[in-house]
Amino acid sequence: MSKFVKDHLTDQLKRELDGVQDMLLVSVVGLTANRTAALRKSLRQKNIKLMVVKNSLARRATEGTQLAPAFEGSQGTLAMVWGASDIVSLAKEVIRLAGEKDLAAFLPRGGVMSGAALKADEIEKVSKWPTREEQLSLLLGQILSPGAKLASQLTSVGGALASQIKQHSEGGDAEAAEASASDAAEPEASAAAAPETAG
Fold first, then answer.
1. Which of 24, 48, 183, 189 is deepest in the core (most CB within 10 A)?
2. Close Cβ partners of 86 (under 8 Å, ≥ 6 residues apart)
3. Confidence (pTM)
4. Cα–Cα nearest to 109, from 11, 9, 1, 27
C-alpha cells in the first residue's frame, strides 16, 4: 500500500472517529459475508457502527487521541465498534451478541473507555453496570423520593387538620343548637312560673 493511500485512509478514519471517546474491539474472523452483513444491519438499528480495520492503520488514525490505548498491543484482524447511548449500552450489546450461537466467532477483544484501555474480560464487567438511562432513572427516583415523602406527610397532616376542623365545626353546631334550645326553653319556664307567683 503506497504512502498516499495510507495517508488517505488514515485521514478518512480520523474523520469517521471524530468525537468518539469510547470504543470496543471485537474479533469477527470466521464470520461469513452474509452473517457479517446481517450483523452490521442489526448494529446500525441500535446506532452502533462496526468497521474492520488494520491495527497499524487504526494506530495511526487514533494516535494522540483518547482511543489510542485500545490498540496498544493489539494483534490480528480486529473490528472496531462504537456508538449506542453510552459505553455500557455498547458493552451490553457486544456481550449479548457474543453469546449467540450463530455468532460464535464474534468475540470481545478489548477497547477503551474515557481514555483507559479495557481488557476483554473487563467488557463483561462493564456490561453489568447500569446504563445512562438506568442511572438517570435511579437518580430521578432519589431526587423525587424526598419530595414525595414530604408531600405525603403534608397531605396526611393537612387531612388530619381538616378532619379535626370538620369535627369541631360539627360539634360547635351541636353546641349552638343546644344553646338555642336552652334559650328558647327559659322564657317558657318563666312564663309558666309567672301565674303561680301572681296567685
1. 24
2. 22, 131, 132
3. 0.67
4. 27
